Amino acid sequence: MPEGEQAAGPGAASVDARVGHAGTRIDLDAVTKQYQVGAVEVTALDGINLHVDEAAFVAIVGPSGCGKTTLLNMIGALDVPTSGTVRVAGVESSGASRRDRAALRRHAVSFIFQTFNLFPGLTALENVRFGADAAQRADSSALAEAALAQVGLAERLHHFPHQLSGGEQQRVAIARALATGNPILLADEPTGELDFRTGIQILRVLEEQARSGMTVLVVTHNREIARVADRVIELSSGRIVSDGAPVGGKAEIDDLQW
Amino acid sequence: MFWLRWSWRDLRSRWVAVVAIALVLAIGTGVYAGLGSTATWRRQSNDASFSALSMHDLRVSLSPGTFTEQDTLLDAAAAIASADSIDAVAERLVTDNQVDTGGADSVLVPARLVGMTFGSERPVDEVWIRDGTEPAQEEAVLEAKFADDRGLPGTGVVTVASGRSITYSGLGVAPEDFFYEGPEGSIFAEGELAILYVPLATAQDLVDRPGTVNDLVLTLEPDADRDVVQAQLASQMADAGLSATVSTREDADAVRVLYEDIDNDQRFWNALSALVLGAAALAAFNLVTRIVEAQRRELGIGMALGVPRRQLAIRPLLVGLQVAVIGTIAGLGIGVLVGNAFADLLESFLPLPIHRTPFQFGVFAQAAALGLVVPVAASAVPVWRALRVEPIEAIRTGHLTAKTSRLTDWTGRVTLPGSTMNQMPLRNVMRNLRRAFLTAVGVGAAITALVGVLGMLDSFQRTLDQAADEFNKSDPDRVVVQLDTFHPADSSIVTAIGDAPSVAHIDAGLRLPVTALAVDSDDDLDLLVELIDFDRAAWTPTFAQGDEVAGENTIVLARKAADDLGLQVGDVVAVRHPVRVDAERFVLSETDHLVSGIHANPIRTFAFLDVAAADRFGLEGAVNVVQAYPASDASAADVQRSIFGLDGVASSQPIARVTQAIDQALDRFLSFFVVTAAAVLALALLISFNATRITVEERQREHATMQAFGLPVRTVLAVVVKESVLVGVAATAIGVGAGAIFVQWMLASLATTTLPDVGIGLYVAPSTIAIAVIVGIVAVATAPLFLIGRLRRMNLPDTLRVME
Asked: Are the beta carbons of A129 and B420 closer than 8 angstroms?
């Protein structure tokens, strides 16, 4: 077992991936996910092998239905594979109980959704505090304020989601993810609901997180966005068809256009 | 067809919700139909029963203590000019007596011996033999209500005053005895009079009056002019030298009471059933509205695709129609069930030979009409709202759809204590106050009905307890002995009662009927005043207000009597009362009395004067009622036995029997409430569960997000439960408040006509509050627990991607 990895598997509920970055590694071995849709069996992921080091900025691209979101859900322990193993932050989530997978989500990963999924009844500050509270971090209020300041929303603490623009709401969602203190950030089409300018703002925030040591995985169908990542994984029909640096080299965010 | 098919799929996907809401309506309509049917049932049952037993149209009664030769009355009837109008006629011998039921639990009670003809081909006032057989010669039928009240067997032997025993071959009742009011001063007295129906010759033999009668009952041809026949009979009797009164069927207590009460009682049940139906309708409206609101976006898509709005409205309106149809069909079933329960109750306490309880389609149709209209209207409102907006508004997804109230915006800067998981429930409620309020009102409506029904029970029960406490204080074993007339306080009968071996001591007094005249209206009130020696009597009334009976011109009234007469302590009331002018004659006089106090008995009839007022009645030194207190080793029954047969004793009744009788009478009345309460409890639970289930469905994306951040299901559930508790607290507050108002209204309006003689105060017992809390808060709060499986099975990835 590599140094820094914890014993994995069921019963390893006390995940603490925040201790250093040694636990941010993501390992998927021969992961297959099949769904039964009516009489048809659909293979969403087909024998995926994937290894992501810590502090990486990874983009997962591919056409609709290629398995991008399913892959992200496997890594985020929202779903379990039909076969194969998924190991995140030293914990094998593929065979873990519901409770252990919840613990993994609480302490190792955090999500950013295309539709934000903010709590409409909570203010921006409270939404972000929720992230810190969920991760059981002390002084959640101060952490939330700091996270909102980090995404440039220090002046919008007491606004409710409906009082914020789409870009601001997504930044609140990012701040909520940051407030968890978890080392792996999973973003599913984070700019999908946003216009170009706002999308650029969001990408900048995500890149900053990767630069600061977090492992950031962004699912997108937009190849232009993928150019800012360190590594681009392309899926097609549930298989990885390419994996490496962006074609044509890593781009600066200011150079992007779509 | 397309829309119907689509709607059918809608129904299949949410059949639980549709059926549950339909059940809510069904309970409402069922209770309405059940409670609304009792008046018709009672009227039909009365008509059929009086008719089946050939209740007399006219009755000729000789003056008390006078008799005539058998056939004299028949001949007199046959001699009237309108004799052809008489359908059937029968002579009887009706005499007062006393009965000892014998056995270990022997009771001694006043009795009435009715000598009559059994098995006649043309009977009048026939006896309905409920248990056993018709009596042979030297046998009797014992009145059934008395036997039931005293727990006597279906056949047995009793002893009458002459000491002779007679076997009763069965239990039964004649139509004029369907209801027994009791002698003056006694109440709820059906266990206090033993009626024995015996063959005429046997009756004549038992009372040692062979060949005599004193009573004639007749039925008339359908086209007869009863008034004419009545007048001719009265005239004929006078001509024959007989002192007699000719009374009509309606003069009989049984007829008067059994018909008079019907409409009063029905008004009571109507109010109650309207409350239940209203609560169900309100809740159904709320629940259907919320289901249809969930189709808002689909309506927008339809509008965006250019589908005419009228066509788009069909599908959500069909939801309401589905609820309406299922609710109406289920309501029919529940109506039958509730109706059967009420019919059984009626049969159990109305001693009628025939009970007619057909399903009342008319009443049910009224409820069903509302049951049909409410869900359709409930679906129409959100459809109308959804179709008013521009398509782009309706189909908008994501962050642009979120809306909250102004209050929510205002509360943004209010910092709530605790973690966000603790804040979330209140924030969620504040976020959509209208929806939270409607949910609370929906659940609160059911609790209103529950508190309304149980609060009525509480108020009645406490009133009964107050009456019992007042009657029973000093000694629950005291026996109230009513004398047959006024006797000197030192007369032999009074002395004999006081000297009876089981009697420790007595308080002799007077009990007189008077009429109190209202201050500011022409109304008057019949009271039974008791003249008491307040300084010496062992039992005196408790003063709820005022504390002094200052001489002969003061009166102590019940609170209800004072209120009805518009009086307060210190006011003067005019009292019309009898004054004895000689041994045989009384005249009426009117005297002003100062209201010196209010006594604690809630029964309006009772009033008290100081014994010094007796001379104003011309009754100084006279008594007609004696309170007899048993010796330490004797019981009330011993007292009754020891004074049984004393010449001058009209009746004796242990005071405890009065409260028991009130209790039994109220129990019968309240049994309707108990059935209704059971239905309302089911209604409240159903509404609570549905409202919570819909809330959970509406919040499922938030719950998925919480789980995505690693919160365990129990934490998510805790948030839901806390939110439900907040709504439940509001619902309970609404329900308890509105329920108390309903009870107050019922007592202030309807109870004054239904139960005019009892002052019933509003009382909602802690147990009722506890039940309301259990239903409104605990049941609402625990309802999400039933949805734990749904939360566990939730497909997180799919739910998180749901577009709103």
From this structure: yes
